[in-house]
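Usage

Read records sequentially. Each one opens with the input sequence:
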Amino acid sequence: MHSATFRGYAELDKDVTAVVKTEAQVVDAQESQTFTTAFAGPPSESYEASDVVDQPVFSAIPGDSVVLTLHTQVRVDNSKNRKGSGMLTTGFTTHKVTAAYGLKWQS
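and closes with the structure output:
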């Protein structure tokens, strides 16, 4: 896996932050990759954010099946402004998870 693109809507009060984080791991592999996009208030806008890894760490033996697990978290933190609030969706209008992952296979 070499890239991840997240799309959605961010609405955060002052001093409220948010993070979209995806960890990708090939089952039975020791390595994993993490893609992280951070936001800080006060934006109220649609976003598209990408994260790219220069050196993908996963490899597979040609002809073998590979199981890739993806764990995505969306977190909003108002610890620096307890009266503040925020919302981070990962879909422009659907309010569903919208993410594109770039995979490169080599033999």
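Summary fields computed downstream for this record:
- The longest strand covers residues 3-12.
- The mean pLDDT is 77.
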